[in-house]
Amino acid sequence: MIVASALSDFGDGLSFIFQARESSAGTVQVGGLGEVGHLAGNHLLVSLLAVAIAIAVALPIALVLGHKGRGEFVAVSTSNVGRAVPSLAIIAFFVAFLGTGFTNLCFALILLAIPPILTNTYVAVRQVDRDLVDAARGQGLSEGQIIRSIELPLALPTIFGGIRLSSVNVLATAIIGPLAGYETLGTPILSLNVYGFSGAIGAAIVVALMTLTADAGFAGVQRLSTPKGLKVVKGGRRRMRFRPTSPRSVQTP
Amino acid sequence: MIAAAVIAQSGGFVRNRGGDASCVANDGFCPSWIADNLDRYWAPLLEHLYLVVVSVGIGFAIALSLGLLAHRQRWLIAPLTGVTSALYTIPSIAMFFLLQPLLGRGNTPAIVGLAIYTQVIIFRNVINGLANVPEEMVDAAAGMGMTANQRLFRIEVPLAVPEILAGLRIATATTVGLAAFAAFAGAGGLGQKLIVASLITFKSNVVIAGGMVTLLAAALDLLVLGAQRLLTPWRRAVAA
Questions:
Q1: Domain tally for chain B?
Q2: First-to-final CA distance of chain A
Q3: Least CB-CB distance to B91: which of A86, A89, A211?
Q4: Three-state DSSP string of chain A
Q5: I need a surface site. Which of A110, A118, B143, B185 has the fewest CB within 10 A?
Q6: Per-residue pLDDT tens digits for A61-90
Q7: What is the distance between the alpha carbons of residues A170 and A214, in angstroms, rounded to a whole number?
Q8: Nearest C-alpha of chain B: how many angstroms from A126?
Q9: Which residue of chain B comes nearest to A92, CA vs CA?
Q10: Does B93 touch chain A (CB under 8 A)?
């Protein structure tokens, strides 16, 4: 019985995505691909913008800090604070003290997206074999070149791991966008009295698919961006023709 | 009195109780209003704490069992990691709604959802903690005639305690944040005071409710850290 009614709830949710229907009060048409698509577009727009700006801000800072080996305190405490302050509290403080609107929502999401990117990039650069950096320096590479062509490529998989985490977080938090005065897929969820339960279920399904896709996509990018040499070591199963010299990578499982 | 209780229960909010009226009307930060209304936040705070403690407790028991099982049956690690991290990817608000057709509204979907989110963190730390136990120690224990179960519970698990509790710590802080969305499942908590459009713009309210969520996360974090120190005295000796 419960399973049957649950299935019909999910079915209703799915049909909300594809077909417009009357609102709960019967006054306007809600749902359907048109509206859900519009909300999903808004949702993606604010999320992508926030993550892009967070990358533009956090990546250069973390690369330089990691390269110089300075500011470990900043990198570590950013991630601790980022994890400790609940995302709803961040959004609430932003909305209450700076006001509603697209820009403010975007700012709050940027703040949410920065810590994982900053910390992952910093840690990844610090983990690059110092011998490699010394060798590059010995060959006459400038510090900027070392960051660009040695540290960044080796750190890429971990950096994408941070971006992956941030994107999923931001997509999830953008659901409360309507509270900040910006329509996202959270609209049917927050205006339950207009959209009805099936609207909330439908929106929840779309958002869940969105985050799962983003997660899987970045996982793929993470794999593709892993330098070939590192893949051999990580897999560990394949026969290695030479033993890697880095002390970190010797610990094959 | 009854009407007030009903309004409070439904997440509604009466602004005209105490405080400087013009400050409240302007959504301001009003210390006098906070002093007059702080008592309204204790119940949501306790609900929040209840949700976190119960869901982390259940989640910890399940993740620890799964971790111990997967430590023995190594082939389970990959699928369990995959499933738990995929579940972790689903936004909490969506999860709380998607669980409702099966579990109804209230504490049940909230606790189930929150417990699901703790799995990936604790499971990973249990597996890593057990894997990081030096092989020589396990070998030595085997040489002393310990059975596999004795080795697991007397050698491997105690040595993995720091990492397991580190997982518990992250899971607890994360759950405090996610439980703020449990109001979407109809479970109350401090989030109830934040997910309403007319309340999220009210500075006094946001300072109390948002501040309480943040402080609760910090307090529970310190509590687990303290437990970690108490349970692993040998670590302090090394650090000193």
A1: 1
A2: 49
A3: A211
A4: CHHHHHHHHHHHHHHHHHCEEECCCCCCEEEHHHHHHHHHHHHHHHHHHHHHHHHHHHHHHHHHHHHHCCCHHHHHHHHHHHHHCCHHHHHHHHHHHHCCCHHHHHHHHHHHHHHHHHHHHHHHHHCCCHHHHHHHHHCCCCHHHHHHHHHHHHHHHHHHHHHHHHHHHHHHHHHHHHHHCCCCCHHHHHCHHHHHHHHHHHHHHHHHHHHHHHHHHHHHHHHHCCCHHHHHHHHCCCCCCCCCCCHHHHCCC
A5: B143
A6: 999 999 988 877 887 788 777 777 888 888
A7: 11
A8: 22
A9: B200
A10: yes
The answer to whether residue B28 is domain-embedded is: no
Angstrom CA distances, B146 to A147, B66, B162, stand at 51, 23, 23
Residues 6+ away with beta carbon under 8 Å from A65: A71, A74, A75, A122
User: B74: domain CATH number?
Assistant: 1.10.3720.10
Q: What is the pLDDT along chain B (240 residues), one digit of tens a residue?
A: 333 333 444 444 556 666 677 777 777 788 888 878 888 888 999 999 999 999 999 999 999 999 999 999 999 999 999 999 999 999 999 999 999 989 989 999 999 999 999 999 999 999 999 999 999 999 999 999 999 999 999 999 999 998 999 999 999 999 999 999 999 998 988 988 888 877 888 888 888 899 999 999 999 989 998 988 888 887 766 554
- Show the domain range for B175: 40-232
Report yes or no: A93 at the B interface, CB cutoff 8 Å: yes
CA distances from B213 to A211, B50, B200 (A): 25, 13, 14
* Residue B170 located in a structural domain: yes
Regarding an ipTM greater than 0.85, the answer is no
Reading the block at residue B97, the tokens are 């709604």
Place of tokens 């417990």: B115
Q: Does B94 touch chain A (CB under 8 A)?
A: yes
Decide: pTM greater than 0.90. no
A192 touches B: beta carbon within 8 Å: no
Give how far A134 is from chain B: nearest CA, Å: 31
Query: From CA A113, how far away is CA A169, in angstroms rounded?
Result: 7
The H or E element spanning position B188 is none
- In angstroms, the separation between the Cα of residue A6 and the nearest Cα of chain B is 4
A234: which residues sit within 8 A by CB, 6+ positions away? Answer: A226
Mutate to test the interface with B, among A43, A44, A88 (most CBs of B within 10 A): A88
Residues 144-203 of B with CB under 8 A from A: 170, 173-174, 176-178, 180-181, 184, 191, 194-195, 197, 200-203
Kindly state whether A231 is in contact with chain B, defined as any CB-CB distance less than 8 angstroms: no
Contacts of A13 (CB under 8 A, 6+ apart): A198, A199, A200, A201, A202, A204, A205
Domains and CATH numbers, chain A: 28-225 (1.10.3720.10)
